[in-house]
Amino acid sequence: MKRNSFPWSDWNDADKTLLAALVIFLGCLCVHLQYPASILAEGMLFCAEAALVGGLADWFAVTALFERPLGFPYHTAILPSRRDAFIKASVTMVQKEFFSRRKIFRHLEKLHIMPMLLEWLSKPETEARLTRRVLHYLRDYLLHQDREAQARIIAERFKAALAEIRTEDICSAFGRYMSSSGRDRELLARLAYALRQQAEAPSVRQAIEAHLEEYEKECTQDDFWSQLAAGFLEATSLVDLEEAAALMQKQMLALLDELAQQGSPLQEELLALFYQTSAEVSGEQEFQALVQDLKVQMIEKLPAEKAVACALQYFRTQLTERVAEGSEDEHLPVLRSQMEELIRQEYRRMEELLRTDSQMQASVGRFLHDLIARSALHAQSLVGVIVATVLSRLTDKQLNHLVYDKVEPDLLWIRMNGSIVGAGIGLILFALLHVIALF
């Protein structure tokens, strides 16, 4: 294919070789005309002629693959005239050779998919990316769900879960929660503080004094000597009910202060007594029936559906506003952090299970092999369409250059070999003709 023209520096090696063969031929012709009887001059002209003919023949053959050399119309420009067949052959080669079933499965057998998958899953950026993606899917899911239907379903499941809880479990769970969270001590401290505010009032001291007076009257109303002794004690100020009431109020306040103090012996003793008594009471049938009746009434009258619907609506409103403002990373930070932590825990649990469970590794490996193989096989038709579309959009000149650029060194050597082989064959024929002429 003749791609270059003058100047001389732009010519390829085959063009230069062909030009050199022409120059040598003309030189040998001049020498032969000058010395017609010289065998050497005749042999040189014979070889030069054969080299020129061989070079021209190969130039014509190579050029005829892509163009019409010298405008010759018969069986030339083969690639442009058979471009449809070439495109079809290219598509078939890509589909059957590069994406054949045999090669696809051979390459898949060499892949260590599970180690690659586990290494990819262990990267922190992979965990962060997948966590964000799951949160994004959850956000879209919540935004596109029917709020009323979701509220009804959640409320029904919530009530069903409450109905399945046993009375003993409710009591024990409540006790464990109060004890583990420290709410029992906090509640007792607040109760003691509230009682202390009431107990330090003067009215309390007066009430204590009034009770002491009534108690004194009850004890002495039917006994003359008791009345006489009480009167004597009051007259001599040995028994002062007002002072006794003040002392009792002071002692009550001290007990309440100790009860409000975190970790005090009185507080621990009272809590232990409370839990012991609660355990005994919770085992009684009357108490269990009462709790069960309260639970049923609460489930029946609890506006769970309305509460869930309001919560979902508020959540969706906040989420929609934040997304519209472009600050979806800042909406409901507490809920977001809790959901992220939950997703991360499940992600790490899944990763650890995948690392340790050989049966799961085998199942996941088979699934991935099958998925990749099916995807690659389905890509055959897609690759064929792509190759056919790209090649069909090329002009004849672009198609010629696409093919020629890939095999240019070989085609140039074919043309140069034509001159070299032609010269060698010419030398052999010249020698044979003279040998035959001798006989």
Attribute tags:
disordered N terminus, mainly alpha, 439 residues, rod-shaped
Describe this structure in words.
- With 439 residues, the chain is an all-alpha fold.
- Among the domains are: 8-81 and 395-438; 182-283, no CATH class.
- It has 19 helices and no strands.
- It has helices at 13-34, 39-64, 78-81, 83-98, 101-110, 113-121, 124-143, 147-164, 167-181, 183-199, 202-220, 224-235, 241-260, 265-282, 285-301, 304-324, 333-356, 358-392, 396-438.
- Helix 5 (101-110) packs across helix 18 (358-392), helix 7 crosses helix 17 (333-356) and helix 8 (147-164) packs across helix 16.
- It is rod-shaped, with a radius of gyration of 53 Å.
- The two termini are 45 Å apart.
How would you summarize what this structure contains?
The chain has 439 residues and is an all-alpha fold.
Question: CA-to-CA gap between the ends?
Answer: 45 Å
Shape descriptor: rod-shaped
Mean model confidence by pLDDT:
78
> What is the oligomer described by this structure?
single chain
List the helices and strands and how they pair.
Elements lengths: L12 H22 L4 H26 L13 H4 L1 H16 L2 H10 L2 H9 L2 H20 L3 H18 L2 H15 L1 H17 L2 H19 L3 H12 L5 H20 L4 H18 L2 H17 L2 H21 L8 H24 L1 H35 L3 H43 L1
